[in-house]
Design goal:
This protein is mainly alpha-helical. Helix content is 63%, strand content 12%. The protein is built from six helices and two strands; from the N terminus they run ααααββαα. Helix 2 packs across helix 5. The protein starts with a helix and ends in an 8-residue tail after the last helix.
């Protein structure tokens, strides 16, 4: 998957941020960090680079001088859409070759793992 994203000019962390913002724009960097299970410091540099590339913009939040809402630019939406399509194609080429029962087992385990991961505190994120 990393190679597919590199072909689009994206790293995996950049794709994670862009694709997450397609689900819910307007979140803060702290919200995004929590969704990605990383520290706010990790997200800060990542967002700086995405802003510089013209893919994300920070917008002021009324009444909050410290935080900004993150929004995709048209270029960010386009690149995120292409990344999501590449991800779907990759999943179809790989997981799509497994038997339905194996996919069901895999999904059950991934969802169980996700639930356990969500119970863990994220270092550097209060919450």
């Amino acid at each position: 998957m990393g190679g597919e994203l590199r072909g689009l000019g994206l790293s995996i962390p950049q794709f994670d941020a862009l694709s997450t913002l397609t689900e819910r724009e307007g979140m803060t960097q702290q919200d995004l960090a929590a969704r990605l299970y990383v520290t706010k410091g990790n997200v800060s540099g990542l967002i700086d680079r995405l802003v510089e590339a013209g893919l994300v913009e920070r917008r002021p939040i009324p009444g909050d001088r410290r935080s900004h809402a993150l929004h995709l630019t048209p270029g960010g939406i386009d690149l995120a859409t292409r990344g999501i399509a590449a991800q779907k194609a990759y999943v179809a080429r790989t997981l799509g070759r497994l038997a339905p029962g194996d996919i069901a087992d895999f999904e059950r385990l991934v969802l169980k793992w996700r639930d356990v991961a969500r119970e863990q505190p994220v270092p550097g994120v209060e919450g």
